Fold these 2 entries.
Entry 1:
Amino acid sequence: MTDNNEDKRKFSVTKQTALKIAAAVVVVALAVVVGFLWYDHRQDQLAEQARTEAVDAAGKQAVAMLAYDFADVDNQLAAAADGLTGSFRDDYTTLVQETIAPGAKEKQLTVQVSVQAAAPVSTTPDEAVVLLYLNQTTTSADAPDARTSGSRVRVSLQKVDDRWLVDQLTPV
């Protein structure tokens, strides 16, 4: 009978061990599931933050790039170039220096821009495309009465060192 009792004790220890292992497996599985859910939630938070920041940056930068007063056009548009990426910055600076600034001074142009609506087209934590609906009000020496026109632009942005910079601005 002693052998039978020992067998039962071995079995009960084995059963306890099996329950402990099963409990540990359940705890680990729950931890993995919670980890995946947290990661997914964090990615959603980052994407939402990117959407909000990119839309805001696109609107501000488009206004800075497109609005100017002929009396200070060089300084205003040069400051706007700070919010642009490499080759796009170079192209924009060339356009400003060769075409926009001389034309604005010659015709005494003043352009005011306001964002009427903005919507993200696509966003990741480091890249975004935003559609902007703009109103531009233009006055000049030849036409002192303000002329307002609407336009749509597609703005591509890159996040560089925690700043959203315009990579491309395309009329739609």
Note: Helices lie at 2-66, 73-80, 86-107.
Entry 2:
Amino acid sequence: MSKNGKNTAGILAGLLAGAAAGVILGMLYAPEEGKETRKKIKDKAGDLKDQAKNKYGEVSEKVKDQYSNISSTFKETASSVAHTVKDGYDKYKDQIVSKTADVVKDVETELNDLKK
């Protein structure tokens, strides 16, 4: 996961924890019956749990999409580099074979001249 993704997840977790603490403290100091307060805390905790699941799902999907994009880009780049290297190899191989044939002809010519 990228550094930005870690920061976002940390901020999200901090915000959710702060919201939960604020709601709980507010309910505890509210002038209501204990039973009603506990029910509200339980309901709010369920709501926060659902929100956290939703955010986790969203972040998870974004990470999967980014991984897919990066993976795809890497594969394309690697393929392009491989083709470039192969094309360069083929080009220089043909030049070397041609130059080698020229050198062999020159050596044969020199040897024939020396034999005469």
Note: Residues 35-114 form one domain.
